[in-house]
Design goal:
The protein is an alpha+beta fold and 201 residues long. Helix content is 41%, strand content 20%. It is built from six helices and five strands. The strands form two sheets. The chain has a three-stranded mixed β-sheet. A two-stranded antiparallel ribbon has the order 1-2. Strand 4, helix 6 and strand 5 form a beta-alpha-beta unit. It is flat and about 50 Å long.
């Protein structure tokens, strides 16, 4: 899988982490266990690898039909969303405590909910509004790709409901709207594809 070479805040790149998934080798494996940025990136890369396998069963660069460009754009967006971004203040029981979560963490949460839906993968995830102000109205914008054969309307409605429930529990954001845009329809693996051996003896 082609990955951008941009370096994450922790010093690793998506290319490093992709190579780790392929080989199991990395210079500082202990860092991966402690770094939330790397953990989030690894989870998303694993999902992309699974999706690529489901769709292609071959190298994504040879896919044709636009899938490679789409997956590369996902990787590019992923690099941006793994950055901490803005700090989102949280309520604290003690007045001397200062609690917050990062915009990047919320984007990763949104992506994980979208990716958990069968036949669906998240593209861009954005929080529109002043997340640094408690109670400010926020609009969640998510772009998704849907595998052909899955209802786009059903996927968008299901994702909207799941995000509303998850964000209400996991964040203190004042979510006013959740906008879902289907930007790609991906071709499933053809049953006549010579690489498809599931039904062969």
């Amino acid at each position: 899988m082609n990955t951008p070479s941009d370096t994450l805040e922790c010093g690793h790149s998506l290319a490093d982490l992709s190579a780790y998934l392929d080989t199991g080798q990395i210079d500082d494996p202990a860092h991966l266990e402690m770094c939330p940025e790397c953990q989030s990136a690894l989870a998303s890369l694993r999902r992309l690898t699974e999706l690529g396998g489901d769709l292609l069963r071959s190298d994504v660069a040879d896919a044709g039909s636009g899938t490679d460009d789409w997956m590369q754009s996902i990787l590019d967006n992923l690099h941006l969303e793994l950055r901490p971004g803005r700090n989102i203040p949280l309520k604290a029981e003690h007045p001397d405590d200062t609690l917050w979560e990062t915009e990047g963490a919320v984007s990763a949460l949104i992506r994980s909910v979208a990716d958990a839906l069968p036949g669906t993968a998240a593209g861009k995830c954005r929080l529109q509004g002043d997340v640094t102000t408690v109670g400010a109205p926020i609009t969640v914008e998510v772009e998704i790709a849907v595998v052909y054969g899955h209802s786009m309307e059903e996927r968008a409605a299901t994702l909207r409901d799941e995000l509303a429930k998850t964000l209400a529990v996991q964040t203190e954001l004042n979510i006013q709207a959740i906008d879902i845009t289907v930007t790609d329809v991906l071709e499933p693996l053809s049953t006549t594809d010579p690489l498809n051996t599931e039904d062969q003896p």
